[in-house]
Amino acid sequence: TMPEPEQEKSPDRSRVLSCAGEDREPSLAAAVAAVRSGACVVLPTDTVYGVGADAFSATAVNGLLAAKGRGRDMPPPVLIGDPTVLMALGRDIPDAAKKLAERFWPGPLTLILQAQTSLSMDLGETHGTIAVRVPDHEIAREFLRATGPLAVSSANRTGEPAAVTAFEAQDQLGDSVAVYLDGGATPGLVPSTIVDFTASDFGVIVRAGKLTATELRDVVPYLEERQEPEPELEPDPEPQREAATTTEPAGAPSVIEPGPDDHASQEQLAPNDNVSDEQAAPNDNVPDEQPAPNDNPPQDQPTSVEAAGESTDPPSESLGQTG
């Protein structure tokens, strides 16, 4: 007799938790507990669905990369629930970056910055940079305020289509994710626009996305553009690869030390810390004392960009798409 063909294991739909109505609070609580245990969680964003893990846990981040079938050479971006958290993640943040964050966050804008050297994050081969975004999605921000910063990439296997529903994400990621937060269908494949501030204080657009260069230049007139190949769809940028610099930005010290006002203690960013609403006042995002932009920003500075959570950012990365 012929052996019976093995049937594909159907996904465990009990891992998909609704965020509608009265289900929202217990579902978010279960997802927060999963993150704190070091597991991966899928969440909706304003682009596509993203898969997230505790950004302060190297083991959790490695689990995220393994779930996607990706290596450490493609580090995920970081999503935060409140713009004020940016000051604890980046160092020497140029005024132009602060202005863009104040104007377009929450929204489809990812900023690549020099990371605080005090951060206890291991996201992969970031070359001392960090890609950050605040998604314009209420459920995502509520979740991120409860967990603290999360490493987030599009909720799909690398090379596969980005997911716009929790079930599509589960069909690809299966048991590698503990909880799937179902917030309904997401808007889809237009990724976040990625602006790199590691090579120039004026900023360089390294991936086109939902926000146009014209819209960004209304806020930062001297923003530069660099042509990039079409990225893979992901929820958010994973720009760190491109941010890897072969030359030091003008005026940058060879050894990075956080400034006295920018230094973020690990307590400030403990993954379970919540950011109060008062902190989120629109004008609180950025201190006034920041270095003036360099007069001669270096040209052709390589930066690495992968869409984080945006499939690589929907159109290109999804979290831009997530990111």
Structure overview:
The protein is an alpha/beta fold and 323 residues long. 20% of the residues lie in helices and 13% in strands. The protein has 8 helices and 11 strands. It has helices at 24-36, 58-68, 86-89, 95-104, 138-147, 166-173, 213-217, 240-243, and strands at 16-18, 41-43, 50-54, 78-79, 109-114, 129-133, 150-154, 179-182, 193-196, 204-207, 224-225. An 11-stranded mixed beta sheet has the order 1-8-2-3-7-4-6-5-9-10-11, sandwiched between helices. Helix 1 (24-36) packs across helix 5 (138-147). The longest helix has 13 residues, at 24-36.
Secondary-structure blueprint:
Elements: E1 16-18, H1 24-36, E2 41-43, E3 50-54, H2 58-68, E4 78-79, H3 86-89, H4 95-104, E5 109-114, E6 129-133, H5 138-147, E7 150-154, H6 166-173, E8 179-182, E9 193-196, E10 204-207, H7 213-217, E11 224-225, H8 240-243
Parallel strand pairs: 1-8, 2-8, 4-6, 5-9, 10-11
Antiparallel strand pairs: 2-3, 3-7, 4-7, 5-6, 9-10
Summarize this entry quickly:
The protein is an alpha/beta fold and 323 residues long. Helix content is 20%, strand content 13%.
Beta strand count: 11
Q: Helicity level, as a percent range?
A: 10-25%
Strand order of the largest sheet: 1-8-2-3-7-4-6-5-9-10-11
The rounded distance between the terminal residues' Cα atoms is 53 Å
Task: Provide the residue-averaged pLDDT.
Answer: 78
Low-confidence region ranges: 237-309, 311-321
Secondary structure tally, helices: 8
What would you report as the Rg, rounded to the nearest angstrom?
19 Å
Strand content: 5-15%
Query: Which structural category do the helix and sheet elements fall into?
Result: alpha/beta
User: What does the largest sheet look like?
Assistant: 11 strands, mixed
Order of helices and strands: EHEEHEHHEEHEHEEEHEH
Q: What spatial form do the alpha-carbon principal axes imply?
A: globular
